[in-house]
Design goal:
heterodimer; A: mainly alpha; 11 helices; 0% strand; B: 257 residues; alpha/beta; 6-stranded mixed beta sheet; 4-stranded antiparallel beta sheet; 10 helices
Chain lengths: 264, 257
């Protein structure tokens, strides 16, 4: 049979469509929809989750993430500038810090700060209670990642920009603040937003600290709901809540990347 | 600051010199890019520097505001030894306008902000004064209507004129041009050269590294030909271009003219 290459490719494509449709049909006709709905999308349980899942859990996730991100961003900028410093010890300190906190699982950092620190130093306490601890833990982990991103962004600003600022008489600090860093942030906005998405998910690790009901964030909320109802519905809802935060952020990142692609 | 004992010429010369470079050497690693340059620009003078690429002319220019650190030699700007650790280099730089081949406008700022940023942060001018100075200089380069545009929306020639206006807004005593038209489309070169010609006729002290022989002949008071890290020949532009004395100058000019 002498099929042309294009025709053969078309047949292969049709075959794939057919296969997908058959598979979908099998799933639709063989699944036990009543049980699935009861266990995954139970209407009574859904109704019982509102409004607290939004007003407590989602709100707390957003607050924890935002605080951790802001602290991490500040720390990341400081670490990035230290890494680019001409003073050796700053560079070594920054490199060591970044390697440490990029290498550790976020869970270990949470455990260390939330459980280890209070036991080792009973006389001291991290200010701000749970919020303070989660801000610190997320900030340390996120800051280590963001430092490398920001450093790359600063180095991606053409050298001529810095030189132009210096030849106009600006000091090193002024040139960095007014000329280099604003441009660096434009470059690293997409990867920083990705980091925000990662931190949103890492904020779930706060469960190791032990939380009062008013401090529940989404994952803790879902776990407790799942246990008390013996049903997956609360966790499914929590999953949707995460997507409400992360999907718009991903869309924003994609838009920004497309835009900077066009500007190039 | 003055060094009368090492003055090669009469003291009045030194006082008048805008730029005075003595026995300048510059290495990049093992590569000697400048091999003992003596170079002078008097106040109000326009000096054009020509030469093949890699001859060290841009490096010489970049040494004059210490964008490159000389390996040895001395550089005086208006009699000030710019390598003296006690001087305020930022202050000296603010008096030396510089124009780059790649324009180097700040892309995140509007044209007007490009012109006011350094005025405000370096000279400490108030907003109104800075804007007034900026508008004056934009008018001078013929781009008043572009003050709220971003650099990316301007042609190369317009960007370079804005870059000149930005340098002028600092009220510099002299201007350094590093191949200001080399990155431009041929039809845009004329506008930039016209602005530079106006500047020269107003008496601005200028050092211009360029490949524009016509500009050098017409506007330059002095022409310096560099090759392989040394000044090979210098003199009145018309004479050097028409009747080069040195064989390397002849070879270079026969290629570019």
């Amino acid at each position: 049979m002498a099929l042309s290459k294009r025709k053969r490719a078309a047949y292969i494509r049709y075959a794939q469509y057919t296969l997908i449709i058959i598979a979908a049909a099998v799933v639709v006709f063989t699944a036990d929809w009543a049980t699935l709905e009861d266990k995954f999308f139970n209407r009574d349980i859904i109704a019982a989750q509102f409004p607290e899942i939004i007003t407590t859990a989602l709100k707390n996730t957003v607050i924890y993430t935002a605080c951790g991100f802001v602290f991490g961003l500040t720390l990341g900028l400081v670490l990035a500038l230290m890494r680019l410093s001409t003073v050796g010890p700053w560079r070594w300190l920054s490199t060591g810090f970044i390697e440490l906190f990029r290498g550790l699982p976020a869970l270990v950092v949470f455990l260390g700060l939330g459980t280890g620190f209070p036991r080792a130093f009973p006389d001291y306490e991290i200010p701000g209670e749970q919020l303070g601890t989660v801000t610190l833990a997320l900030g340390l982990v996120g800051g280590a990642y963001m430092a490398e991103t920001i450093r790359a962004g600063i180095q991606a600003v053409p050298k001529g920009q810095y030189e132009a600022a210096r030849t106009l008489g600006m000091s090193h600090a002024r040139a960095m603040i007014s000329v280099v860093i604003p441009q660096a942030f434009r470059i690293v906005l997409p990867p920083l937003t990705n980091e925000l998405i990662l931190l949103t998910k890492d904020s779930s690790l706060i469960y190791v600290l032990g939380l009062a009901l008013s401090e529940y964030e989404l994952t803790k909320w879902g776990r407790e709901g799942m246990n008390s109802e013996a049903n997956l519905t609360p966790l499914i809802l929590v999953g949707f809540c995460y997507l409400i935060i992360t999907v718009p952020l991903s869309i924003v990142v994609r838009r920004m990347e497309a835009k900077s692609e066009r500007a190039r | 600051m003055t060094t009368p004992e090492s003055s090669p010429g009469p003291a009045t010369d030194r006082a008048a010199a805008a730029i005075d470079v003595q026995d300048l050497h510059k290495y990049f690693g093992d590569n000697e890019v400048l091999k003992g340059i003596d170079f002078h620009v008097a106040n109000g003078e326009v000096v054009c520097v020509i030469g093949p690429s890699g001859s060290g002319k841009s490096t010489l220019l970049r040494c004059i505001n210490l964008l490159e650190t000389p390996t040895s030699g001395r550089i005086f700007v208006e009699g000030i030894d710019i390598q003296d650790p006690d001087i305020d280099l930022d202050l000296v730089r603010s008096r030396i306008g510089m124009v780059f081949q790649q324009f180097n406008l700040f892309p995140h700022l509007t044209v007007l902000k490009n012109l006011t940023l350094a005025q405000r942060t370096v000279h400490g001018r108030g907003k109104e004064e800075a804007v007034a100075v900026a508008r004056h200089n934009l008018a001078k380069v013929g781009l008043s209507e572009k003050e709220s545009a971003y650099p990316a929306h301007l042609s190369g020639g317009q960007q370079q004129r804005v870059a000149i206006a930005r340098a002028l807004s600092m009220d510099p005593d002299m201007m350094l041009f590093d191949e200001p038209t080399s990155a431009l489309d041929p039809e845009l070169v004329g506008d930039v050269l016209a602005v530079m010609k106006d500047l020269a006729s107003e008496g601005m002290t200028m050092m211009v590294v360029t490949h524009e022989m016509g500009f050098a002949r017409e506007v330059g008071d002095n022409l310096v030909f560099m090759d392989d890290g040394v000044v090979v020949e210098e003199g009145v532009p018309g004479e050097v271009l028409a009747n080069p004395q040195h064989e390397r100058t002849q070879a270079f000019l026969s290629k570019v003219l």
